[in-house]
Amino acid sequence: MKRFQDESFRNSMKIRVDFNNMMEGFVSNGINPAEIEANEVLYAEAAASMVSKRGNMKWRELPFNQSKIVAEINAKVAGIRESCEYFVVLGIGGSALGPIAVHQALCHLRYNELPREKRNGPKLFVEDNVDPERMASLLEVIDLKNTIFNVITKSGSTSETMAQLLLVTDALKKEVGDDWAKHIVATTDHNKGNLIKIAREFDMDTFYVPDGVGGRFSELCPVGLLAAAVCGIDIEELLAGAAYMDKLCENPDIWHNPAYMMAALQMLAVDRGCNINVMMPYADSLKYMADWFAQLWAESLGKAVDNDGNEVYAGQTPVKALGVTDQHSQVQLYTEGPFDKVVTFLAVDNYRSTVTIPHGYDHIPDVAFLGGHTFNKLIQSEQFATEYAIRKSGHMSCTVTLPEVNPFTVGQLLCLFELMTAYAGELLNINAFDQPGVEEGKNATYALLGKPGYDAKKAELDAAPQKQDRYII
Amino acid sequence: MKRFQDESFRNSMKIRVDFNNMMEGFVSNGINPAEIEANEVLYAEAAASMVSKRGNMKWRELPFNQSKIVAEINAKVAGIRESCEYFVVLGIGGSALGPIAVHQALCHLRYNELPREKRNGPKLFVEDNVDPERMASLLEVIDLKNTIFNVITKSGSTSETMAQLLLVTDALKKEVGDDWAKHIVATTDHNKGNLIKIAREFDMDTFYVPDGVGGRFSELCPVGLLAAAVCGIDIEELLAGAAYMDKLCENPDIWHNPAYMMAALQMLAVDRGCNINVMMPYADSLKYMADWFAQLWAESLGKAVDNDGNEVYAGQTPVKALGVTDQHSQVQLYTEGPFDKVVTFLAVDNYRSTVTIPHGYDHIPDVAFLGGHTFNKLIQSEQFATEYAIRKSGHMSCTVTLPEVNPFTVGQLLCLFELMTAYAGELLNINAFDQPGVEEGKNATYALLGKPGYDAKKAELDAAPQKQDRYII
Question: Using one digit for the tens of pLDDT, what is the confidence trace for A289-303?
Fold first, then answer.
């Protein structure tokens, strides 16, 4: 029996959302519970939409409908873990941010630095940029003969990923010859696009991105699950954590629905001028959750028009921070700067290591007082102290606490933020699932690269106002 | 002769600031040159302050007054590069962000992954957090016998760094015995604080943080230079680049002073509601420049009161992004979201590698059109296209271009941003060199850890409003 099948394990691992420090009585311009009650109808309507639109939010079913896929992935990765030395994800956006965040959370913090026998699996590289220096450096540190590339693009038309595929295809043909396609696993749409054509033609191993699952909502499908399983993460437990949170967040009562309440509070904060949303994990393991969330929140809610065609220019800007590190970088601004942000702390009850600060330098009391405490106590005291300092200076914050960082709690966290984002989209009456603002830059790139059919865009670029020399120093 | 002594090298490596896309005629709510002219007196006064206060800005002299220290560092690191396998920086804030940024910019992008003979120096770890899982994982991947720790804290009272020092002192004593102090290099004040006492008592190698050089302005003193030199970076050229930019930025005419103009434009943008400052390098090598700048800008300008005691709650919030990666994460928000941000692109003319996208999959035109281009052309086209898309949607941006990423241009960049920040401080009439807002959290941490003398703070914490259960879900 898996531990997540035990109810007492699940209850002990429930993550908690604490929003005291957003409320009146805690911060000067805090939210009064009456404001939340006054929005009762709005919140209920949004909750009803989450139910009625569930059929279109296919990503919500991922924790429930993938037992067959999980078995396939686990069967596939057994061989990879044993024989391959490098597992390289080629993908960008959601195809990279999810795999990075989950790997950082659930693998050894210096996974790639460990000797092979402690890793029990290949080194992991996630390549989400096309910097030529980075591409060159990748080929210098991997051994193609012992590398599997996981090419991930749902559409099969992502320029960055397809350029990378061309590079590794060529390199593999030179290095391993006819077996080149055995070194590539494609994760893409089951039907549409260029990558599935290529995968079928060359008989590559393939996993599918289900219909209705967009990039930033795709971590819990094979996009994220394959790399996680390759690195030894229990993906069944990850999905079970997400399923657990999804159930919790079916509660239509906002006072008992952490996703809905967090979304509603952020929107009330936006109305108070908080156009900035800082996520500050107090754990290195959760550092890249803030990157993953940044895409989810920015790309889902950053919209010029609402569902009725009104110009709204919505969107709170996500900011990534790390505790305690950024206390020495950003907290000066957070406490003394403008009242324009909400800080969301991610806290951990029990770290997976306990490290004591040894006694020493006993004749120097300002150093010696640290001895005998643990680093655990130190980081948790600093988190508490920073929360306190930010509240005292009149700024809002909330704290999401994981009892421990494990696949079950990380699955909950992913699902919590996805539901919070979708619900915020309903409150704003915008489409949280498209990204029309990305097209302009894509098309301009195509025009610059001379892609057939982009002559008009090229002409438009050429006709843009000429830069003035006096504005260049 | 070093190449930076050649004037034609210096001129060819001058970095450029292009602010066309902040100006009227380029963006809808752009800045009119007349606005800049209207502020002539203000800008001239701030420029005069930069001259009159130069004696207090000791960090400005670092490019000019360290030839002896550079020689000492280079002599010291020769042995370290040859014999030591791991060089671990223990520091936080400016003691970490500078070393990380310069290492990422100027060393191989996968430096730690390279075999020893290609690195020609030890692996580098910069430990700027006290997460117990991270501390435990560090001790798992290094070999203490072949490790040098560079402990950096000017005050000698930074809890995080001193806790780390206690940990490694104890571990070294157990592993290498009496020689333990030979594995520690202290970088601290030459006179004040606990670390210098410890360093002298145990005869550790020591480098000094000069008087008047605060953490976030310390990269070009031994705080940053030692780790850089250990990794084979030409620190003389780095300083020469900074000296070159310092000279350029002595020009009192804002139209010819890139630091002053950038600061003035950002302040005009703040007046238009742009409380967010995004830095988006189009180069993996410059990724952590955005982190370094984030501290510089946030901690320097995030101030509750001005020099006359008025409550101002100043400070633009820095946001870190990476091109092209974040086109698939943040650009949707940047183009369609609120008009609340300025994007500063960091661009590169010549990357240090040229990588061709090979031809392939010729029967699929939507993939094949990429073949024959270079990754260089791809990333530069995307930078151009993103700048275009952001401008077209009416949002402001500027672009700082490095002809190449090398020590000379990185030195310029560091100096440019430092001067821009100091000048912005003058425009805001605030103290850009203190960080009073950090004290509250520090003191609360001391109280929680039972440091002698913090009983009153502990009592204050205990008397804080009790959290309410209904605000925890």
Answer: 999 999 999 999 999
Residues of A in contact with B449 (CB under 8 A): 369-370, 373, 377-378, 381
B473·A258 Cβ contact <8 A = yes
DSSP bridge partners of A184 = A149
CB of A370 within 8 Å of a chain B CB? The answer is yes
- Amino acid symbol at A442: K
User: In angstroms, how far is CA B51 from the centroid of its own chain?
Assistant: 24
List, for residues B379-419, the tens digit of each pLDDT value: 999 999 999 999 999 999 999 999 999 999 999 999 999 99
Instruction: Give CA–CA dist B150/B146, Å, rounded.
Output: 13
Pairing of strands B86-90, B147-152: parallel
Cβ–Cβ under 8 Å, residues A410 and A105: yes
Q: B174 — contact with chain A (CB < 8 Å)?
A: no
Residue position matching structure tokens 């280079």: B74
**Cis, bond preceding B324 (omega within 30 deg of 0):** yes
Residue of A29, A445, A457, A468 to mutate when probing chain B, most B C-beta within 10 A: A445
What pLDDT does residue B53 have?
96
CA distances from A417 to A282, A289, B6 (A): 17, 10, 55
* Orientation angle between helical segments B132-141 and A375-392, nearest 10 degrees: 140
pLDDT at A167 (0 to 100): 98
- Pick from A302, A254, A318, A258: which is nearest to A425 by CA? A302
B368 close to B360: Cβ distance less than 8 angstroms: yes
Interface with A, mutate which of B100, B332, B466 (most A CBs under 10 A): B332
CB–CB contact B255 A473 (8 Å)? yes
Asked if residues B328 and A92 have their Cβ atoms less than 8 Å apart, the reply is yes
Instruction: Give the β-pairing of A86-90 and A341-348.
Output: unpaired
Q: What is the pLDDT of residues A60-114, one digit of tens each?
A: 999 999 999 999 999 999 999 999 999 999 999 999 999 999 999 999 999 999 9
Altogether, the residues listed in chain B come to a count of 473
Question: Can you give B255-301 as a three-state secondary structure string?
Answer: HHCHHHHHHHHHHHHHHCCCCEEEEEECCHHHCCHHHHHHHHHHHHH
Residue whose pair of structure tokens reads 């952590």 in the numeric block: B288
Active site residues of B: 299, 328, 442
- Say yes or no for a CB contact (<8 Å) between A135 and B163: no
Using CA atoms, how far apart are residues B185 and B29, in angstroms rounded to an integer?
52
* CA A65, A68, A71, A77 torsion-angle sign: negative
DSSP B54: G
CA-CA distances (angstroms) from residue A128 to A97, A151, A164, A298?
9, 11, 10, 18
pLDDT tens, position by position, B44-95? 999 999 999 999 999 999 999 999 999 999 999 999 999 999 999 999 999 9
Whether residue B60 contacts residue B97, with contact meaning beta carbons closer than 8 Å, is answered with no
Please give the Cα distance from B407 to B102 (Å, whole number).
Answer: 9
